[in-house]
Amino acid sequence: MHENSPPGDVAAFFGRLVEDSLPGRRGEPAWRALLQAHATLMRQLDTDLRADTGLRLTDFDVLAQLAETGGQLRMTDLAARTLLSRSGLTRRVARLVDEGLVRRGNTAEDGRGVVVALTDAGIARLTETVPVHLRDVSKLFVERLDDQELAVLETALRKVIVHCTFG
Predict the structure, then answer these.
(1) Which residues does the chain have with pLDDT short of 50?
(2) CB atoms < 10 A from the CB of 10, how many?
(3) What is the residue-wise DSSP string for 57-83?
(4) How far is residue 120 from each of residues 51, 69, 84, 104, 126, measured CA to CA in Å?
């Protein structure tokens, strides 16, 4: 922005930038709604899960991803499936190891890759938290939409999923 631009022009300036970049602002309300829904749902789900079980949503995500794939994954595969960056996942797994919920080891194939596996304590923790978490998912998300809205939303969102790994 220019030094001589009065503060009142910031909103108009931003509006022109958006209009120039997204003609007719097509899709902008949907995009903003998606971002707001995701942010508010994730914050509320994390708050509720921590209050009810002491487990953070990101910890739950790691445990759930391991459970869905049979109880263990290579660290690189786990990173691709979770809501965390690689460095965030490394710190999270270290904390879960300290809590006894997962264990870390080398892969049998080459000895260089790292495998993360659920422990009995991790499975027990999931047994406690899955019903609590899914009750909140139902209350905050599923119950607010009818079956048709859920189906349309799933179809639409699957079209825009980006397959990538996060660093």
Answers:
(1) 1, 166-167
(2) 11
(3) HHHHHHHHHHHHTTSEEEHHHHHHHSS
(4) 23, 16, 24, 14, 10
pLDDT for 22: 85
Nearest to 61 by CA among 30, 92, 86, 37: 92
Within 8 A by CB and 6+ apart from 150, the residues are 142
Order of all β-strands in the sheet with 102-106: 72-74, 114-118, 102-106
Strand locations in the chain, DSSP E?
A: 72-74, 102-106, 114-118
For residue 62, which phi and psi values (nearest 5 degrees)?
-60, -50
Write the pLDDT tens digit of every residue in 74-105: 998 898 888 777 788 889 999 999 999 999 98
Q: What is the pTM of this model?
A: 0.82
Q: What is the pLDDT of residue 4?
A: 58
